[in-house]
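Practice problem 4.
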């Protein structure tokens, strides 16, 4: 199928062809006509499927076609709520790219940075707002954002919102936006809380389900290295000697771990930076830009920080530590293999992580191929048991220690 069969307006088509998009991805093929028809939509899809364009293209088209408000300031008519700052920025950039030949404008707001510049932008008038829930509610409460004119409301990555504790913020927001609106809800998984919310906010939604979590990994080459915990850093350096690894995201479970790995790489002159929730938005954005521009070879990230990172043609993902939740493995390795491109996902597994690997293999329905030949094979085939804390000395009553 081609984009033109989806009846997309000329100004958006022009922008899509400049982006190099030749044909719609499956979710775009299914969702765009339904959204253009004015239907509510429940989309089961994760990042990497092209879901941003699936909602951004028809939103831009619907809001452009409608009679423009004749005079006065622009009013927010499209609202996208998404869990992380990185995702918000990316969605905003997509709206700007696809909508550059329309008359619409977009604005992005998120927390962790000063609200002043966001306020200035909002005051000028905005058609489409992309926001994270906390800052959005803040600015609504301060009377800076008026959501009375919302016509299209998009809730992105609803399951992540739930994981990150945003459900109440979302409920508050839904109570405030106009009942008469078109609503699009996207979620990679459908836990009961999200299914209930979907039932309450969507009216006769069209349902679009793309690639169940296990099959998105098929185009990605997966490799497994069994290695002892203390040798992981050396194995990482060994693997990165391969110059064909142009850019890689290394995943760690903790902020501390991310910083440590980045430091260790820097010591051996491999350009690396860590991004995680403990860093300022500015520092995260600089690291991300440097990485995108090829100034940094390795980005070491925790899962929350990496959420929504969209880098075209990322060749390698390295799981320095396996995630506790098997679905996270699929999200992580989906950073490569974007829009049908291949990629390589390398995972380290120490003895303690074997149960995590078993969960992952159960989810993806196959064994991850093992790389047998490498300089740091697993030798410690026993669990690391934390040394028990020494027993506390018996509490001596103060009175007993007083000199007699
Ligand atoms: P998303 O799932 O929205 O995060 O999109 C994943 C990646 O696919 C992004 O880098 C998009 O720029 C890219 N993409 C989206 N739609 C298309 C398309 N129709 N053709 C080529 N690339 C696309």
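Answer key:
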């Amino acid at each position: 199928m081609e984009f033109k069969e989806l009846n997309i307006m000329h100004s958006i088509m022009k922008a899509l062809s400049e982006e190099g998009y030749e044909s719609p991805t499956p979710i775009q093929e299914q969702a765009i006509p339904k959204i253009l028809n004015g239907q509510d939509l429940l989309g089961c899809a994760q990042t990497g499927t092209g879901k941003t364009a699936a909602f951004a293209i028809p939103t831009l088209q619907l809001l452009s076609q409608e009679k423009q408000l004749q005079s006065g300031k622009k009013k927010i008519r499209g609202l996208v709520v998404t869990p992380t700052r990185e995702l918000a920025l990316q969605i905003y950039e997509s709206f700007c790219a696809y909508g550059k030949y329309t008359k619409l404008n977009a604005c992005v707001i998120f927390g962790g940075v000063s609200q002043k510049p966001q306020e200035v932008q909002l005051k000028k008038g905005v058609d489409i707002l992309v926001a994270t829930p906390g800052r959005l509610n803040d600015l609504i409460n301060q009377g800076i954002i008026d959501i009375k004119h919302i016509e299209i409301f998009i809730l992105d990555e609803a399951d992540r919102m739930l994981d990150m504790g945003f459900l109440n913020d979302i409920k508050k927001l839904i109570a405030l936006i106009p009942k008469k609106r078109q609503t699009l809800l996207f979620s990679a998984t459908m836990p009961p809380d999200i299914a209930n919310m979907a039932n309450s906010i969507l009216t006769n939604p069209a349902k679009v389900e793309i690639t169940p979590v296990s099959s998105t990994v098929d185009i990605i080459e997966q490799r497994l290295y069994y290695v002892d915990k203390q040798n992981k850093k050396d194995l990482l350096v060994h693997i990165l000697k391969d110059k064909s690894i142009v850019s890689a995201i290394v995943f760690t479970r903790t902020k501390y771990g991310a910083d440590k790995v980045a430091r260790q790489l820097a010591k051996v002159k491999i350009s690396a930076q860590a991004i995680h929730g403990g860093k300022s938005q500015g520092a995260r954005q600089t690291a991300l830009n440097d990485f995108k521009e090829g100034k940094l070879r390795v980005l070491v990230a925790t899962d929350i920080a990496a959420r929504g990172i969209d880098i075209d043609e990322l060749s390698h993902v390295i799981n320095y530590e396996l995630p506790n939740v098997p679905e996270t493995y699929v999200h992580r390795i989906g950073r490569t293999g974007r829009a049908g491109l291949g990629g390589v996902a390398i995972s380290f597994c120490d003895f303690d992580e074997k149960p995590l690997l078993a969960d992952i293999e159960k989810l993806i329905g196959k064994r991850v191929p093992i790389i047998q030949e490498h300089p740091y094979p697993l030798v410690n085939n026993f669990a690391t048991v934390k040394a028990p804390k020494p027993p506390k000395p018996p509490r001596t009553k103060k009175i007993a220690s007083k000199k007699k």
